[in-house]
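Translate structure to sequence.
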């Protein structure tokens, strides 16, 4: 309820865009972005490489807490899950596990090639140190601290059998563009989440 109230106030005050970050004209609007919740990978991949926002203009802050609460609220966005089939055995399984371990933990992948903060804790500091050489963010020490604090505050997450992000894109923005209220959009989002959850076998109470 409080999230819906916050979004409603922002939308009614024309402080909230209905565009998605990968919409065709998002880059044009993105250069005027004031603030937004977003993933760590937004920095290099979105702000720098896609929207071409100049260095020294963007920074990050730690996740915020709701009024009356001390712990911040945040979640995850993006990233990748590596799975190994239960049908393989022997040398093929051994090779698959070696590969999965490499891409999930090895700094040659997680530090040198990753656009986002690694999920594997022991290599996070090395990835954060790269930001100093990149010299993109306006406040590099503050951004590094915000990224670490944000990662520690991510709510526990279980792999879902359906994509909640695509449901948001399919229901919220179209509802608003069609003239519906934020309440209408959130209700449509919730209804479709329930529909998709049931369609893949979840029990919804």
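Result:
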């Amino acid at each position: 309820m409080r999230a819906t109230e916050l979004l409603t106030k922002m939308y009614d005050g024309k402080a909230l865009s209905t565009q998605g970050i990968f919409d065709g004209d998002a880059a044009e609007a993105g250069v005027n972005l004031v603030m937004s919740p977003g993933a760590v990978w937004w920095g290099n991949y979105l702000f720098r490489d896609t929207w071409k926002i100049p260095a020294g203009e963007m920074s990050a802050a730690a996740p915020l807490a709701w009024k009356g609460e001390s712990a911040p609220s945040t979640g995850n966005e993006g990233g990748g899950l590596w799975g190994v089939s239960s049908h393989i055995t022997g040398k093929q399984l051994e090779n698959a596990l070696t590969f999965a371990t490499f891409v999930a933990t090895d700094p040659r992948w997680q530090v040198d090639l990753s656009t986002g903060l690694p999920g594997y804790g022991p290599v996070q500091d090395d990835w954060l140190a790269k930001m100093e050489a990149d010299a993109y963010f306006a406040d590099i020490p503050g951004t590094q601290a915000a990224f670490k604090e944000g990662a520690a505050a991510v709510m526990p997450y279980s792999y879902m059998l359906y994509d909640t992000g695509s449901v948001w894109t399919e229901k919220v923005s179209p509802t608003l563009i069609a003239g519906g209220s934020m309440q209408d959009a959130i209700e449509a989002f919730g209804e479709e989440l329930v529909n998709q959850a049931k369609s893949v076998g979840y029990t919804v109470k």
